[in-house]
User: What shape does this take?
Amino acid sequence: MFTSVLMIEKALTSADVEFVTTLHGDEQVSFHVLLQPRGDQADRLLRAIDDVALGELDEAAKEREVPEGDAARPFGERALEVSLQALRASGNAAEGRLIEDHPLDALKGLVEEVGADEVIVLTDPHYVEEFFHRDWASRARHKVGVPVLKLFSHSKA
Assistant: This one.
């Protein structure tokens, strides 16, 4: 069985589930999902800049209305459960957890813990972070010791 660590920031859509579960053809995959609840105000600023860069001014203005930090935890727990159920319904093994501390430390620890074959980072585009190679996938490639695949989710957060 192939073991993938899947790092996400919101609930998987049905298109996302189909995308990640078909990457290895008919081979069974065991998914270990890490979900990062919404971060702090610095993250909010970067998301707003991304929205402006995409011409989505309404989305940038709404960033302050979205729960952050501890207030985002219940939403993260629900998104994780929905994602795990969808992966299991597709016929794959899936377990997961919320990221409690630094995302890359949590990722490296889980990769080592489960003996992962790969990491899949599935997020919305984060243009500012990607430009400076500060996004999760770019940074993980130097830290986890297994291949890292970066994919974009099929819906806006």
Observations:
- The mean pLDDT is 80.
